[in-house]
């Protein structure tokens, strides 16, 4: 067999085959036919051939694309029809989230597939979609969220906080706090329009070029946490990019001489200072940012965020809080790195979420860091020994405080109710059954705190420890209500772990009280001045956590489907923003 070139530039072919003769005949005829046509006809023919080739290539390449696997920035969340059951996926960074369907197109349902862990962290993730409200109570909560959103949109859009009574707003960080804090709740509720509005505002308007001091902790848990959660729920890379920008600025807090960060940061100048009111940082403020920065590190591939913030816990672990067997004082100094001597020990304001993040970091890191678990277990033992008491005459269990580290005070902030959620969660992860008992008792006390003419809970309650008539009383200056989430958060966890429907009933009653006494007809809800007066005085402020936490936990608590955002795949930050659990 001999191979020759029939015509320079043509491909080689076998000249002896009958196919070769046929081909030459066809080509000769074509040449003849073509040479007898005029120029416009020839142009037309060439154009038609080129067009056909183009159409063919396009069809083929689309076919190829369809055969490719889903393109997802954060593989733990798989969106809608891109999921192919049982298949595992690898995907490139460039192809990532830009190709995802927009938030409002997300089909929300749980699918039981698992995806490859992303290179930068994650693992064990389930595919998550949301289906919206499943019953009338959930629908009512969704309506309430929308009512809050409408008020905020009308009178405060782009500002931090709605003042619903005066139909105006206030700014704290000037970062559209209510939008960013509330976005993931809108997504979880299946509110497509609200989620789209928030996403577009964050994308097009939100900037952190702000020459103002912001609180490192509050800005982290509300803004960074909100955006990281939105990133993980939607896969939109924009949220991650914004988070990196904000995280870089906020980490200026670590320009202190010790591993303990300063409390306040200038976002534009990237400078940081102690709080204006004193030399020390609050324990909770320096120890309640780690879930957010770890998520940022794992998603961005830059370990600095995680390393710097985790150093805070390593440092506290090293110096220890031995005088009270793992219970730490409420103040720590960013210059020296030391605790203030004899400061108050509490599970309320200034300390609360230290204990929450001891536990939740252990969960977030796939239960691989033993000393977190040990320190948490030790602290809970000490809490029981030093702070956990019951009232007279009806034995309401509560967690009091040690003033100046010494004097017992039977005072419990509403904030403390969070611990019932954390304790109950711990009981599912190897901590003693007693933790669940304590959680149920504290959860019940939190419910008792709502036993007021308005049905709302006060900021602080005091408990009676000597024979008397009333178990708990509320001082006039403690009687206000910011519509905080902690009691409802606790009932959400307790319901998940016990299935006892009384927790849903308690949540529903609290919701009805919010509707009755805090709703402002023109839009939004307001904090109130005294839970004991049905002749309500409004404080004219709607805190962003009403949308970020209170309505979210209500919605989740009241659902028929308690597998939404499963707690072995997701960990809720202290601001109620779900983040993925990693395997290390
Ligand atoms: C929220 O901002 C967070 O839960 C924080 O940890 C303390 N409490 C408020 C809401 O009450």
TrEMBL record:
The record places the active site at 218 (proton donor), 352, 459 (proton donor), 486
- Cofactor(s) the record lists: Ca(2+)
Task: Give the metabolic or biological pathway.
Answer: Protein modification; protein glycosylation
Q: Which GO terms describe its biological process?
A: carbohydrate metabolic process; ERAD pathway
Give the record's GO CC terms: endoplasmic reticulum; endoplasmic reticulum membrane; membrane
Gene that encodes it? mans-3
Record EC number: 3.2.1.-
Recorded protein name is alpha-1,2-Mannosidase
Question: Which cystines does this chain contain?
Answer: 417-446
Give the location in the cell.
Answer: Endoplasmic reticulum membrane
Enzyme class, broadest EC rank: hydrolase
Q: Which organism is it from?
A: Caenorhabditis elegans
Which regions span the lipid bilayer?
39-59
Q: Which family does it belong to?
A: Belongs to the glycosyl hydrolase 47 family.
Q: Which InterPro entries match?
A: 6hp_glycosidase-like_sf (IPR012341), Glyco_hydro_47 (IPR001382), Glycosyl_Hydrolase_47 (IPR050749), Seven-hairpin_glycosidases (IPR036026)
């Amino acid at each position: 067999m001999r191979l020759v070139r029939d015509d320079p530039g043509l491909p080689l072919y076998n000249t002896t085959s009958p196919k070769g003769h046929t081909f030459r005949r066809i080509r000769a005829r074509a040449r003849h036919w073509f040479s007898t046509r005029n120029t416009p006809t020839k142009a037309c023919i060439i154009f038609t051939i080129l067009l056909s080739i183009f159409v063919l290539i396009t069809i083929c390449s689309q076919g190829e694309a369809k055969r490719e696997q889903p393109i997802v920035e954060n593989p733990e969340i798989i969106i809608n029809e891109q999921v192919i059951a049982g298949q595992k996926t690898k995907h490139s960074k460039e192809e990532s989230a830009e190709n995802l369907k927009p938030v409002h197109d997300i089909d929300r349902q749980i699918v039981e597939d698992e995806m490859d862990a992303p290179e930068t962290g994650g693992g064990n993730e389930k595919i998550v979609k949301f289906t919206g409200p499943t019953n009338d109570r959930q629908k009512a909560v969704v309506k309430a969220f929308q009512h809050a959103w409408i008020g905020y949109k009308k009178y405060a859009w782009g500002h931090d906080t709605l003042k619903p009574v005066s139909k105006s707003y206030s700014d704290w960080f000037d970062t559209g706090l209510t939008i960013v804090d509330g976005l993931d709740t809108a997504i979880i509720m299946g509110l497509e329009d609200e989620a789209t509005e928030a996403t577009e505002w964050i994308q097009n308007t939100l900037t952190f070029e702000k020459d103002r001091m912001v609180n490192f902790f509050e800005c982290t848990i509300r803004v960074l946490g909100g955006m990281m959660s939105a990133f993980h729920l939607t896969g939109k890379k924009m949220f991650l990019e914004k988070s990196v920008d904000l995280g870089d600025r906020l980490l200026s807090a670590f320009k202190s001489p010790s591993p303990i960060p300063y409390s306040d940061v200038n976002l534009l100048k990237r400078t940081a200072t102690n709080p204006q009111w004193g030399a020390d940082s609050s324990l909770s403020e320096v120890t309640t940012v780690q879930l957010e920065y770890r998520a940022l590190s794992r998603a961005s591939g830059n370990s600095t965020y995680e390393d710097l913030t985790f150093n805070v816990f390593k440092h506290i672990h090293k110096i220890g809080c031995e005088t009270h067997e793992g219970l730490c004082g409420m103040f720590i100094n960013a210059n020296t790195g030391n605790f203030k001597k004899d400061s108050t020990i509490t599970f309320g304001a200034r300390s609360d979420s230290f204990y929450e993040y001891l536990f939740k970091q252990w969960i977030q890191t796939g239960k691989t860091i033993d000393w977190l678990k040990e320190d948490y277990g030790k602290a809970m033992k000490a809490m029981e020994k030093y702070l956990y008491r019951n009232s007279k005459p009806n034995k309401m269990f509560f967690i009091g405080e040690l003033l100046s580290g010494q004097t017992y005070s039977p005072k419990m902030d509403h904030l403390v109710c969070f611990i019932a959620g954390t304790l109950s969660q711990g009981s599912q992860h190897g901590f003693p059954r007693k933790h669940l008992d304590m959680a149920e008792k504290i959860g019940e006390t939190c419910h008792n705190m709502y036993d007021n003419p308005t049905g709302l809970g006060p900021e602080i309650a005091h408990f009676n420890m000597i024979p008397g008539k009333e178990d708990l009383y509320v001082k006039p200056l403690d009687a206000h209500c910011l519509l905080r989430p902690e009691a409802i958060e606790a009932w959400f966890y307790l319901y998940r772990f016990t299935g006892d429907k009384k927790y849903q009933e308690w949540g529903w009653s609290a919701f009805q009280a919010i509707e009755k006494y805090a709703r402002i007809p023109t839009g939004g809800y307001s904090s109130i001045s005294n839970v004991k007066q049905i002749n309500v005085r409004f404080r004219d402020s709607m805190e962003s956590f009403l949308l970020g936490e209170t309505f979210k936990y209500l919605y989740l608590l009241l659902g028929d489907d308690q597998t939404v955002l499963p707690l072995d795949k997701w960990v809720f930050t202290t601001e109620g923003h779900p983040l993925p659990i990693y395997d290390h």
